[in-house]
Design a protein that fits this description.
By secondary structure, this protein is an alpha+beta fold. It contains 23 helices and 20 strands. The protein has two domains: 188 residues, Penicillin-binding protein 2a (Domain 2), CATH 3.90.1310.10; 349 residues, DD-peptidase/beta-lactamase superfamily (Beta-lactamase). α14 crosses α16, α15 packs across α20 and α16 packs across α18. The longest helix is centred in the first third of the chain and has 36 residues. The chain is elongated and about 160 Å long.
């Protein structure tokens, strides 16, 4: 049978549609309420949070590194300045896959794999978040153009203009002024993150390191508006940085060059000090090096050549070089003997060419094997007679000798502002007992009296001891900074002056030094014969290798670097000291023949005018105690 036809219930369908419309409307209304509530929550309740977040995405505070202070010599010659340079920087947080970005940089600029490794090492180095890291310095115009053309491939990479430290004098002041270099991870941990925000370099050696706080300055800030890619659109606010303080040094560029010329390319050191002020006029350590490559990062190959060179150009011989002072300390030993009362100016010792301790067969040789006969204090200094000073040292004993020589600055740091200075060594009983667990022997006192044995000094210490002789014991620490932003440096721990029982003891020691250069039997009389002013000096020879008892020094049997060091100290003019100089020539052998002429050339460069005459301002003052004597 056919199925019955079902009739449509329109009323029922209408009720169904109505229910669905109501449910849909309610659902839409609820969703609309939820959306309105969410918008209210975001726009009203969390308004401050999201506005701040959006503002931070749009506005950034960027540090402005201060301009580093300049360094001049005493006459205004620029020694360290700041040269504009373009650098390539990478911000890791904006670069995304920063290693891929570095690969693109190397491709675009056609660099080497070594450069790629260096870039990665610099980016990985500790730094602050969102701080651009310089990876390549001193970009050429072509490199800048290539980066600009490929900017869409280099997110987080920018070309930044900045001032880079530059040393126009190059190697002439490398050991005194030093250099700046990139901040490493250890330095980053100890530096104030606020003060050094945006700064990538810090003083590593010399004046640059010692006066880092003064040279650095104070960081500034600016608020900038950026787009979504981090590009700066405009500057909203700015606090300018305060530049570092300028420093005027005591060094004289002209005298520095004269001292280097006087050394003649030999390995050695020269220090010249103005006795009345302690100002270091010249400070030469040869060979030297160009500090400029260290500023932006020296290559491994270039650094290896400097580090491994047999001549050690990186080694500061003035401050770190330790050498037996030899006979240069005899004037100080003589003054000490007079003040301690063990000898008088008239005390004489017979010199047969050697000295023997009581009940001891060992012979301590004089450099003049034939002997000088009867020798008094004056002749002992002039002739550099070892026998006399063996006897003097034996009479004083190690305890008094150590005490007096320490007052002259031996065995301690003497400078005011030289970071790398080493203390040297002035031995004593206690030192030997602690170092070798052995007692002190009388023979060791003897050789200490002629500046040999355990005693080690720096050329700077010898120059300071010479200054003390010239000023009759007035202690002023040698220093390199003349003024810092117009203010003179202050010694926080001044040394006490050397006060003797009788001030005339200084005159006896100085007169002996005069005879070294001007006397008929002086060891450096050839130098004095050509001088237009009177020099007080003392030669010295420091052994590099020991010579057996009874043997003579034979230069032909020794390698060049095993030959004796040559030393000479002196000050001039004697009646109005204006300059004190110490010279050490490595393996120079003869203090009077090699080092003394260097001292005279340095003195001439400072004391003489264009006509070869003593400058009028250096003439002896009238009616002074020195001139009356």
């Amino acid at each position: 049978m056919p199925e019955p036809i079902r009739l449509k219930d329109h009323e029922k369908d209408a009720r169904l549609v109505k229910r669905r419309v109501i449910v849909g409307g309610v659902t839409v209304l609820l969703l609309t309420c939820v959306l309105i509530a969410r918008m209210y929550y975001l726009q009203v309740v969390q308004f401050e949070y999201h506005s701040t977040l959006a503002e931070n995405n749009r506005i950034h505070v960027q540090p402005i590194p201060p301009t580093r202070g300049l360094i001049y010599d005493r006459n205004g010659v620029i020694i360290a300045d700041n040269r504009p340079s373009f650098s390539l920087t990478v911000t890791r947080e904006r670069a995304g896959d920063w290693q891929q970005v570095l690969d693109t940089v190397v491709e675009v600029l056609e660099l080497t794999s070594e450069d790629r490794e260096l870039f990665e090492r610099r980016v990985r180095q500790g730094r602050r978040p969102f701080e651009p890291v310089p990876i390549l310095f001193e970009l050429s115009e072509e490199q800048i153009a290539r980066v600009a053309v490929n900017q869409f491939r280099l997110p987080g990479v920018e070309v930044a203009a900045q001032l880079v430290r530059h040393y126009p004098q190059k190697e002439h002041f490398a050991h005194s002024v030093g250099y700046v270099g990139r901040i490493n991870e250890q330095e980053l941990k100890r530096l104030d993150p606020t003060e050094y925000a945006g700064t990538h370099h810090i003083g590593k050696t010399g004046i640059e390191r010692f006066y880092e706080e003064e040279l650095h300055g104070e960081v500034g800030y600016e608020e900038v508006e950026t787009n979504a890619r981090g590009r700066v659109l405009r500057v909203l606010n700015r606090i300018d940085p305060k530049p570092g303080k300028d420093i005027i040094l005591t060094l004289d560029a002209r005298l520095q060059e004269a001292a280097e010329k006087a050394l003649g390319g030999r390995r050695g050191a020269v220090v010249a000090i103005q006795p009345k002020t302690g100002e270091v006029l010249a400070m030469v350590s040869q060979p030297s090096f160009d500090p400029n490559p260290f500023v932006t990062g020296i290559s491994f190959k270039a650094y290896g050549e400097l580090r491994d060179s047999i001549d050690q150009p990186l080694y500061n011989r003035v401050l770190r070089g330790l050498y037996p002072p030899g006979s240069t300390v005899k004037p100080m030993v003589a003054v000490s003997g007079l003040d301690s009362g063990v000898v008088t100016p008239q005390t004489r010792v017979f010199d047969p060419g050697f000295y023997q301790l009581p009940n001891n067969s060992h012979k301590y040789r004089n450099w003049n094997r034939t002997g000088d006969g009867w020798v008094d204090l004056d002749l002992a200094i002039a002739r550099s007679n070892d026998t006399y000073f063996y006897d003097l040292a034996h009479k004083m004993g190690i305890d008094r000798l150590h005490a007096y020589m320490s007052r002259f600055g031996f065995g301690q740091r003497v400078a005011l502002d030289m970071f790398e200075e080493t203390a040297g060594l002035m031995p004593s009983r206690d030192w030997k007992r602690a170092r070798y667990r052995q007692p002190w022997y009388p023979g060791e006192t003897l050789i200490l009296g002629i500046g040999q044995g355990y005693m080690q000094t720096t050329p700077l210490q010898l120059a300071q001891a010479t200054t003390l002789m010239a000023t009759h014991g007035k202690w002023i620490r040698p220093h390199l900074a003349k003024t810092i932003d117009g203010q003179s440096p202050v010694d926080p721990s001044p040394m006490p002056d050397i006060v003797l029982r009788d001030p005339k003891y200084w005159d006896y020691g100085i007169h002996g030094m005069e005879q070294v250069v001007n006397g008929p039997r002086g060891t450096a009389r050839k130098v004095g014969a050509s001088a237009v002013y009177r020099i007080a000096g003392k030669s010295g020879t420091a052994q590099v290798v020991a010579i057996r008892q009874g043997e003579k020094y034979n230069r032909e049997k020794l390698q060049e670097r095993h030959r004796d060091h040559a030393l000479f100290i002196g000050f001039a003019p004697v009646d109005n000291p204006q300059i004190a100089v110490s010279v050490m020539v490595e393996n120079g052998e003869s203090g009077s023949g090699v080092a003394a002429p260097v001292v005279k050339e340095v003195m001439d460069a400072w004391l003489l005018d264009e006509n070869g005459q003593l400058k009028a301002e250096y003439a002896a003052p009238e009616n002074t105690e020195v001139s009356q004597r």
